[in-house]
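Morning F.,

Quick status update on the modeling queue. The single chain you submitted on Monday has been processed. Sequence for confirmation:
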Amino acid sequence: MISATETKRYHTESGVTVETSFDGEEFAVPAIQFELRSDRDDEVTV
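Structure tokens below.
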């Protein structure tokens, strides 16, 4: 569930997606989370 203070952004390039989210309430301090996903068959370095 996304809280009222959470912001999510997505960027996809060359088969790699980076999702960033900010949540000021879930953790004791404001935190930014990065989730990386690849749809590529070959290895990729980010």
